Structures are given as C-alpha cells and as structure tokens.
C-alpha cells in the first residue's frame, strides 16, 4: 500500500482561506471572461488536441489512467518531445 503525501499549501493552514481563495479566483475568471477549465477541456477535445499525461507524475501522486479524462496518452518526456517536435503548436503544463 503506497503512501499519498499531499502537496504543501500555505493557504490551507488558515481556516476558511482556501475556500475563499477558490471563490475569489472563480469570480475573477468570470469577471475577466476567461474560459473555465471545463470549457477549455471541452474546446481541446473538440479541436482534437492530443493530451499526454506524465507517467512519473501519475506514479508520484498515485493516480491511475482511470482517474484521468478519456482519450489521454500516458508517456514520459521522450513521448512528449517526440510529439512536440512534430507539432506546429504545443503546450507543456
């Protein structure tokens, strides 16, 4: 059985601030007319964007492919580079 170690976040240390920060960010996104994560994901799927999830990150945070959205490719840096070098546009997050 693996251990899951949460990422440190100073905001989580102060009661109620995490929820308030989330609400503030959502309001700012809406106010500025920025698409939500759900809308961006939907646009990417509709545009036939190929998404590659990092295998090492999945292992680190104990995620499985079933935890991800459908249609995602699992790979490492070599997989990403192979695809990125053949693409006109790529984004690494």
Structure description:
With 93 residues, this protein is mostly helical. It has 2 domains: 35 residues; 39 residues, no CATH class. 43% of the residues lie in helices and 6% in strands. It contains 4 helices and 2 strands. It has a two-stranded parallel ribbon with strand order 1-2. The two termini are 29 Å apart. The relative contact order is 0.09. The mean pLDDT is 82.
Number of helices: 4
Unreliable stretches: none
E-strand count: 2
What order do the strands of the largest sheet run in, or round the barrel if closed? 1-2
- Whole-angstrom Rg: 17 Å
Quaternary organization = single chain
Percent of residues in beta strands: 5-15%
Overall mean pLDDT stands at 82
| Biggest beta sheet summary | 2 strands, parallel
Q: In one word, what is the shape?
A: extended
Distance between the termini: 29 Å
**Would you tell me the structural class of the helices and strands?**
mainly alpha
Q: What order do the SSEs take from the amino end to the carboxyl end, as H and E?
A: HHEHEH
């Amino acid at each position: 059985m693996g251990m899951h170690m949460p990422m440190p976040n100073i905001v989580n240390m102060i009661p109620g601030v995490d929820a308030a920060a989330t609400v503030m960010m959502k309001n700012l996104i809406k106010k500025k007319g920025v698409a939500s994560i759900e809308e961006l994901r939907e646009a990417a799927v509709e545009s036939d964007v190929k998404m590659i999830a990092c295998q090492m990150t999945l292992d680190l945070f104990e995620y499985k492919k079933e935890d991800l959205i459908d249609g995602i490719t699992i790979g490492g840096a070599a997989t990403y580079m192979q695809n990125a070098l053949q693409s006109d546009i790529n984004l690494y997050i």
